[in-house]
Task: structure prediction
Amino acid sequence: MIHASAIIDKSATIEDNVEIGAYSCIGPNVIIKSGTVIGTNVYIEHCEIGSNCKIFHGASVGTPPQDLGYKNEPSKAYIGDGTTLREFVTINRGSAKTGKTIIGKNCYFMTASHAAHDTRIGDNVIMANNTSAAGHVEIGDNAFVSGNVGIHQFCRIGKGSMTGVGTSVTMDIIPYALCAGYRAQLNGLNLVGMKRRKMTADEINDVKDAYKTLFASKLLLNDALAKLSQSGSVYVKEIVEFIKTSKRGIARPE
Result:
């Protein structure tokens, strides 16, 4: 299951039923769990990879952060079960600030996408071709980030949202929203995504009403948040909490 040309560091832990292709290099401080398939010419170090993952040729995982302040402090990258990393994906391990880069379960990173140091990416996230998440970016569960998207450091993309192709994300994107544009602006709600998550019509209507209250009611943001805080909807509460904890501010409709 391990090609004769692969190089495996003595400190690496490789569980049963792992496949490693030709000319791949598994460096120090690596754990690869059962059922994972590593393609050819893959480089992995300082990383824990979950079970049943697929890593295609040319990917680079767990390499040092692209942070000029990094002084080789101990850090690691974590890849959740069932995640796929396509060709030439790059994922850096954490910097000294958090020590961890975390990718959730069942994510799909398309060709040449990138997750920088200290990123936190949830479960079932799709990162399309050539998309780059800078350091300390957070992306919530079930988000879809389209191709050629650039995400500024420390930005957050909320769960269940969808980001249009070629978008530059410089502010936080609220959960369940659609956004697009050279500088990301909101374009409504990801209704298709919410339906796919099997949210009920009433739950979707609650999110619609919250969106209108935030962006079409002419209320000041703090007043809109105070009003929405009274909602019994768990989804509305997620949006309220997301906005309240934003450090970069939130993207808005044009």
